[in-house]
Amino acid sequence: MFFAVITILPEMFTALTEFGITGRAIANHQADVLLINPRDFTSDNYRRIDERPFGGGAGMVMMAEPLAKAIDYAKSQALARGKSNCPVVYLSPQGKTLAEPMVLDLCEHDGLILLCGRYDGIDERLLQQYVDREISIGDYVLSGGELPAMVVMDSMIRRLPHVMGDNASAVQDSFVDGLLDYPQYTKPLKFGEQAVPEVLLSGHHANIAKWRFVEQAKRTQARRPDLWQAFSPDKQQQKWLKDSL
Ligand code: 4GM
User: Fold this and answer.
1) pLDDT tens, 140-195?
2) Closest approach atom of ligand 1 to CA 90
3) What is the DSSP string of the chain?
């Protein structure tokens, strides 16, 4: 999986590239992250990437030209790596909201070219000529598209084969089967007044699977009625639900 990130703050991406599961996946060459600073594609002595908006107003707008050159460079690098199917994604609050089905769809590509905005946005003409998809990570405004770009990459990298180890937890976890996760417990057996649920100590795998599913169902009904509405239980799960009433 190839990611080219267009950003004036490439140092921020060490959080993704040097730590944890994503850091290891990149070290193992399962994911490749190329950071491209549009300042390197300016031609003036000040390396300007922003200007005042036509029509007036307080803030600054990112200029089209350095971003266009940076995206062209990203596309040439994708091709040089044999990654021909890499759409240009703009992270913005106006985009379609990221959710697990969209992550699976994004993973069908060879990679992404992620465009991170700063200041008060980007010249509209650059967006119209270069951007294939606009994605939001939620209904709030951040000071730049860098954190959203890292969220998108993390959500994709953890779905790559072999990245999560063989406990299959990436395939198991929240949303992937359309339900929230079941509660987890570990040592000690008693924490304050609370004991670990008896069934988890029983070693009875069928009972444990049933208990976990019923916990997932209860949580999802209580916290995310929208997800519960859309969930269709299989035969086994229908039986477990009937038994639990
Ligand atoms: C406004 C317009 C994405 C703000 C363009 C980017 C939140 C998200 C920015 C921009 C962002 C999001 C930068 N804030 N909800 N800030 O995904 O690039």
Assistant:
1) 999 999 999 999 999 999 999 999 986 456 555 667 789 999 999 999 999 999 99
2) 18
3) -EEEEE-S-GGGGHHHHSSHHHHHHHHTTSSEEEEE-GGGG--STT---EEPPTT--SS-EE-HHHHHHHHHHHHHHHHHTT-----EEEEEEEEEEP-HHHHHHHTTSSEEEEEPP-TT-B-HHHHHHH-SEEEESSSS--S-SHHHHHHHHHHHHTTSTTTT-TT-HHHHSTTTTSSPPPP---S-SEETTEEPPGGGGS--HHHHHHHHHHHHHHHHHHH-HHHHHH----HHHHHHHHHT-
CA of 112 to the centre of ligand 1 (A): 17
Q: What is the pLDDT of residue 120?
A: 87
Whole-angstrom CA distances from 137 to 4, 97, 124, 230 are 18, 6, 21, 21
Q: Shortest CA distance to 112 belongs to which of 36, 54, 19, 177?
A: 36
Give the closest residue (by CA) to ligand 1 atom 15.
93
